[in-house]
Write a structure and sequence with these properties.
This protein has 15 helices and 17 strands. A nine-stranded mixed sheet has the order 9-10-8-7-6-5-4-1-11. It has a three-stranded antiparallel sheet with strand order 12-13-14, with no helix packed on it. The protein is of the alpha/beta class. Strand 12 and strand 13 form a beta hairpin. It folds into two domains: 260 residues, Alpha-Beta Barrel (TIM Barrel); 57 residues, no CATH class. Helix content is 42%, strand content 23%. The structure holds S-adenosylmethionine and iron/sulfur cluster. The site of S-adenosylmethionine (SAM) has 17 residues, from strand 4, strand 6 and strand 7.
């Protein structure tokens, strides 16, 4: 049996944040009955895609991770989330220890909803805080306060969730180093099992990108952004978290198994508008006119390397050779001399079978990875 990760995209949010490029629609102000119809129709579409895809992929695979992402999956009424889980269980074989995550936004969780999540087998929550600083939250256009986040976090703990991730962001215009450190420290005090910490990316088409284009955004320098990053990594490590991926830290044993598939060249099936899949060596995205992309040898090898190097444990050259039938440095013999200066400076480390970025190498990751694309 091959292992499979399922991703379900839920494209509804209370309101759109100023930085977000993910596909979703703001539904906060909509009439409840009309919204329920819209959400039911969407869930029915997801259910029928799940059924169709299961006929192709389910017979020789076992689902060991499920991830409801968005958007804001916690906006969905319990009944619809329950229906989707029923369809998944009916159509696919699910492993006993399946990691089942839902993303959740503050203000969309109640004690009843969390109890229901537990009942249907959801065992991991990912809650977006972004910042404890209300000015930063307002720059980001978030629809909640730090207090709303803490309330959701506590409700989740109360409901028995013992695997919770918090998302936080740095490099936000107007954010001071001190404000960032305060967010990091307060998150550590809450003691979640997992933290994702992202440097703000300016996504085309978002209000922050527009402000940047019009020269109205006081961007932080790269130096400050990197200082924020490394200070956070140090603090998480000191607090017992393993910095296992560029933007992720977890208590031992709580690494996100679903997201690890994206960095380990494993299969995942994405269902719902804009969801991406990687199945049988083919990449495709739902709801786009793009043709499914069949990778050639160099595409595949490159993806193995540059997604794998996101993990702080790096890649195994033996695994590369087993997967692709050729030695790593044989495939990249022309790249090797170009990487010499990165090895010499300790940005890239090769030890026996292992190749990885050092912590300071992460600051040059885009450049280094570009040699493998
Ligand atoms: C799929 S998103 C949405 C999760 C959930 N709806 C929320 O907002 O809390 C997951 C996380 O990606 C991060 N993110 C989204 N857009 C980003 C951007 N443009 N730059 C950096 N991080 C971003 C945020 O931390 C967000 O919580
Ligand atoms: S960050 Fe989350 S809540 Fe904000 S628009 Fe994106 S998906 Fe929705």
């Amino acid at each position: 049996m091959r292992k499979l990760g399922l991703y379900i995209h839920i494209p509804f949010c209370l309101s759109r944040c100023n930085y977000c490029g993910f596909y979703s629609n703001a539904v906060g102000g909509e009439n409840e009955a009309e919204l329920f119809v819209k959400e039911s129709e969407y869930a029915a579409g997801v259910a029928s895609t799940l059924k169709r895809q299961s006929r192709i992929y389910a017979h020789d695979r076992i689902v060991d991770t499920i991830y409801f992402g968005g958007g804001t999956p916690s906006i969905l009424p319990e009944k619809l989330t329950g229906r989707l889980m029923d369809v998944i269980r009916h159509e696919f074989r699910i492993s006993d220890d399946c990691e089942i995550t839902t993303e959740a936004n503050p203000k969309t969780l109640t004690a009843g909803k969390l109890r229901f999540y537990k009942e249907i087998g959801i065992n991991r929550l990912s809650i977006g805080l972004q910042s404890y600083d209300t000015d930063v939250l307002s720059t980001l256009g978030r629809a909640h306060s730090p207090h709303d986040f803490e309330e959701s976090f506590m409700l989740a703990r109360f409901a028995g969730f013992d695997n919770i991730n918090c998302d936080i962001m740095f490099g936000v215009p107007g954010q001071s180093f001190e404000s960032w450190i305060e967010t990091v420290d307060r998150v550590i005090e809450l003691d979640p099992e997992h933290v994702s910490f992202y440097s703000l990316q300016l996504e085309e088409g978002t209000p922050l990108y527009e402000a940047y284009r019009q020269d109205k955004l006081p961007l932080l320098s790269d130096k400050v952004d990197r200082r924020m990053y490394h200070a956070a990594v140090r603090r998480f490590r000191k607090a017992g978290y393993d910095h296992y991926e560029i933007s992720n830290a977890a208590k031992p044993g709580f690494e996100c198994r679903h997201n690890l598939k994206y960095w380990s060249f494993d299969e995942y099936l994405g269902v719902g508008t804009s969801a991406s899949s990687f199945m049988n060596g083919i990449r495709f995205t739902e709801g786009t006119r793009e043709e499914p992309h069949v990778n050639d040898f160099m595409d595949d090898a490159g993806e193995f390397v540059f997604t794998g190097l996101r993990k702080t444990c790096g890649i195994s050259k033996k695994e590369f050779a087993d997967r692709f039938g050729r030695g790593f440095w044989d495939v990249y013999k022309e790249v090797r001399p170009k990487l010499k200066k990165y090895f010499d400076h300790g940005f890239l480390i090769e030890e026996g079978d292992n190749l990885r970025l050092s912590e300071k190498g992460i600051d040059r990751s885009n450049k280094i990875m570009s040699y493998f694309v």
